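Hey, quick one: can you model this chain's 3D structure?
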Amino acid sequence: MSFLERLAAIFDLDAWAQWLAELDRGFVFLLLLPFVIAVIGLWAYFTENERDEK
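Sure thing. Here's the predicted structure for all 54 residues.
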């Protein structure tokens, strides 16, 4: 397998969709949970700064 074939396999959306469909829902939840917590933390940080400025 050449480098370009490997690179194309990494960006193959159908392969990614198939892989995501095979994952357990609990695993997906745990995989996404840190990102959700980070977004909520950033939102809270920026809204707190807006309140402090007023």
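One thing worth noting: The chain has three helices and no strands.
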